[in-house]
């Protein structure tokens, strides 16, 4: 019997780490998460392509440029305002501020700088502009059910959070 590999008619379970250019782990997911290749995987395209044909037990490392991962930094998504104009609950590093545009679309911004006179918020992904390495472990591969194939998602797990 041929060993099952990651492919469009299979559910694959992975764990992963995202490592920055300095070698620091910036995100890690140790609980296996399932996806169907070509479905609504939520995986970045370059990672999904690298996983195709891989069996359970394999580890792959994929280097992702900003274009392949979290995009370039957009300076227009960084705003600084006088601290007196900012509500007290947002005057701390890491605070999440949700802004809406005229169309009702929302975007999360995070406080990245606070001093005695100003607060800076940034709407870029924290890894924007950086080349990262994704270390992905294929934990298990199994045949997808007809229902899973129709839905594009595994019945027993959500999509990976790699986007």
Topology readout:
Elements lengths: L9 E10 L5 E12 L8 H7 L7 E6 L13 E5 L13 E5 L5 E9 L3 E5 L9 E12 L2 H6 L12
Antiparallel strand pairs: 1-2, 1-8, 3-8, 4-7, 5-6, 6-7
Structure, explained:
The chain is mainly beta and 163 residues long. It folds into two domains: 10-69 and 130-151, Chitinase A, domain 3 (Roll); 75-122, Thrombin, subunit H. 8% of the residues lie in helices and 39% in strands. The protein has two helices and eight strands. It has helices at 45-51, 146-151; strands at 10-19, 25-36, 59-64, 78-82, 96-100, 106-114, 118-122, 132-143. The strands form two sheets. A four-stranded antiparallel beta sheet has the order 2-1-8-3. The chain has a four-stranded antiparallel beta sheet with strand order 4-7-6-5, with no helix packed on it. It is elongated and about 65 Å long.
